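hiii, so i know i said id send this last week but things got crazy w the move. better late than never?? heres the sequnce for the chain we talked about at the cafe, plus the structure i predicted for it. fair warning i was half asleep when i ran it
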Amino acid sequence: MTPDFRTSVLLSLTNEEVALVYEALGHLEPAGEAVTLRKKLAPLLSNEVDSEDALPLPKTAASPSPDSSPSHPNPSACARNGTTLRSDGRWKASGVFARASNTTSHSVISALASAHYDSPLQSPTLWIDSVRNGLVNSRETFEGNDLESIISRCQALRESDVAGQFLQMLAGIQLSFVYQDKHVTPSMTKFYHSHVRPLKNAPALRTFQEWLATGAKFGRIAAGGSVYTLLLLSGLGLRSVAGRVHGLVHSDVATMLRSPQTAEPELILRRIIPTIARMREELPLLIEIGGTLLDCTSFKESDRVLGGLKTLELQLPPRSSSAWQPCSPVFSEDGRYISISKAVSTYLNRSAAGTAFSPQPSQSADIRPRPALPDPMPLDVTIIKTRYSRFHTLNTCFPARRDRQENVAWTNLYHEKAEQGRSAQSVLGLRKLLQDFYPNGYKASKDAYIRVPIAEIFAYSALELQNDDGSLMAFVCTAMPKGMKDLLFPSLIACLDGPDLFTARPSSLPAGENTPPPFDCLHFSWYNRYTTKGNDAPSNVHPYELHLRNSRTNTWQMLPYPSRDMAEYGQLFDRLTEAFRDVFAWIGSMLQVHLPEAEYEALAQVAESLPGNAVSAVEPFVSLVVNINVRTEAHRDQFDKNLCLALAIGDFSGGGLVLHEQGLVLELQNGDFAVFRSSETTHFNLNYVGRRATFVMQTDAEFDKWTGERNGWGHSDYL
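okay and structure toks below
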């Protein structure tokens, strides 16, 4: 078969056939023909995916090498270089406990090992004294402004902060167990409204969710190395860092601590374990967790109690008895135990009375209480039911092209047609235009478009368009509060450390140029695609001890996992979620009220089932895509579950969102958002003038395999 003929054959395949051939080639040895063909197939698949295919900031979007292997799985590029990991072979117990290796878990272990009794700066002795003094018998006062008094105050504040952070982590674990015991409804939101909101000083829903999420993380780490590991984190000032880790890093740390042979063991065996062994002797603790008074010096009891916290993750490996032998002697001096529950009351009462310094305010967004956002204001929603049939053959076929250059040409052609569309001038005018727009369930003319100047017609209101069966076609909202809307773009610029990434765009491409310049994007996403299925795996062997015969076994993708950008740009993600916390909460509240209940619940179910009790920043969705200077080509987001949301940000004009099959041009302005069916709608953006970005919120459709059968691991004794 000649190369030209082979290429013509590939171009004639359907999307499904292309995907199957691409996947099959991925199972071949990466040599010669397979790599060449995969490189040819990669651009053929690009038309069916979102702008996810662009590389992360600060690079511009480009096609990744199909035969490269990223350090973290990145399904945004999987249509080009990923293959589905199948579990249809025979499973074999390896006897070696695997883990999802990543640099973040190693850095946490390295930090924990930096605290030891021979260190002049980071000796746990100081932290143990601070906890004991802060909880039991501190009566010292710190008046005066002389050097000695100021130094004494600084030291006392530091000690108080260590004790406060330690107690916060323990309280989060206790809260997670109480929630687990009382949680009988399938929805965390319903539990909050029925059990938490009526309480005095009740936190906001989002704050409650974050307390549970961080409590689960700290509970997992404590299950790996005991509660004394949490005291090390407090002393090192790492509570905030540990609370912010994304994905399953906390479980990796716990696995490495319990079973050091899964990592480079020297730091754990020679530093961390001996340090913890001495800490348990110097600070024996009792804490009530899950209705049990836990003796923290007994690691057997600790493993039993803390291992009972269910977080939708695989169980930790058994603790290595040889590695943890220094912590095995039974501690029997009852008179020296400190009861955490009694000590916390003493600590808080003294702090309230001014006889002890309160912990410094935390810089972490994980546990900081916030006032609840007001309930959504009544919103005027215009509902228009159309004759559009979403399942008609002419609406389900992807009309653009797979070849990149041909798709660019197709997009440019329909750019012109969309620009020339008829503009609706009022609600009544829009109703009239739509009345006969889909006479047989589809557009009467494939070249016809209706331009909808959203902000002009629906100022501080919303538009809901329905298909012929009453299902949602699109929901568009312009009601974001002005103070929130005005700060969107300045906040984004601040998070990106300045406006340098933004390029002011002209209204059209320069003469002689047909291809729009690439745009930057970041994917802060949870994925469940290309997962390692466990349908035929034995239930009595831990999944991390299994591997497939004659096949690579990817333990990282047995459970849902975060995108590569979540790890590489974690600090930026934290800044964005903090800066736009109220924006995301407001959007979530609007969707909960105005989306069809079944559509909202389907998305919320995924958001509440993330491993580790993780909280999505953009609930009910689980993924946030940040697009800079965005003008997309025609595409469908085949991996999206049901709906996606696009929020326009910037100082720009133009850039309308085109829904091709529906023949609509939604002219969004800064702060307007649109919800639509991205997986079944060909969409692209028109040219714009100025500086423009979008936040796109979506959920991976493959999560259905997780919420239903837990990726085939639901039968496992270890989930």
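btw The longest strand covers residues 644-654. thought thatd interest u
miss u guys!!
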